[in-house]
Structures are given as C-alpha cells and as structure tokens.
Amino acid sequence: MLGVGGGGCIKRFLFLWIIQKRENKIMDCQTTQDEKAITDAKVVNRRRVLYLLGWGFIGVFLTSVVGSAIRFFFPRIIYEPPTKYKVGYPVDYTLGVSERFKKQFRV
After folding, report:
1. Dihedral of CA 92/94/95/97: which sign?
2. Which stretches of 29-72 are DSSP H helices?
3. Staple 31 to which of 8, 35, 59, 68, CB 3.0 to 4.6 Å?
4. 84-96 pLDDT tens trace
C-alpha cells in the first residue's frame, strides 16, 4: 500500500536511490579525455529529432501566420482604366466609327 500521504514511501525510495547513484558515480567514474569527447558530442536520437521537428512545425506555422497578417495589409487591386467615362455630347461626333477614346480607354 502506498500510504495516505500521497506516496511518501515512493518519494523516499526515489530520493535514496538518486543519492546512491550520485555517490556511485562520484566514486567509480574516472573518465578519460576520449570518453569525455564522445559523451560531449551531440547525439542524434529519436527524442532530439522529434524535438527539432516539433519546433520546425511551430516555426512554419508562425511564419505562415505572420506572412498572412502582412499580406492582409496589401489590397488586392487590379489597376485598369475606368469602366465609366464621359464621352461628350452627340453633336461632337460625325457619322461612322469614332476612334477618339481607343488609346485612352481601350474601347
């Protein structure tokens, strides 16, 4: 049984186990330069890959959010000539086709 105090026995066991491990490491371990160089090198393991992959996804997400927020401030406008314009009075025109507004308004 774990006890009423929320696992006091387990905490005491873990505390004693950690202290014992520390004492054993201090007394037993005499590492050489070669061993230290090997252990100091960054080891690529599954945990590190998943860690970097997770941060990569977060970075991609934040970049897309910031990019879309910046895109929001630029209007989507097509610069075309106006569709309505004043052509003047009918007396200004002669019979036939008038090419007066062809270059200016593309009609």
Report:
1. negative
2. 33-40, 46-72
3. 35
4. 878 778 887 778 7
Alpha-carbon gap, residue 85 to 24, rounded angstroms? 92
Question: Please, what is the end-to-end C-alpha distance for the chain in angstroms?
Answer: 93
CB 87 within 8 A of CB 101: yes
Residue 67 pLDDT exceeds 80? yes
As a whole number of angstroms, the longest Cα–Cα distance in the chain is 112
CA distance 51 to 62: 17
CA distance readout (Å), 39 to 29, 42, 48, 57:
13, 8, 15, 29
- H or E element that contains 15: helix 8-28
Model-level pTM greater than 0.90? no
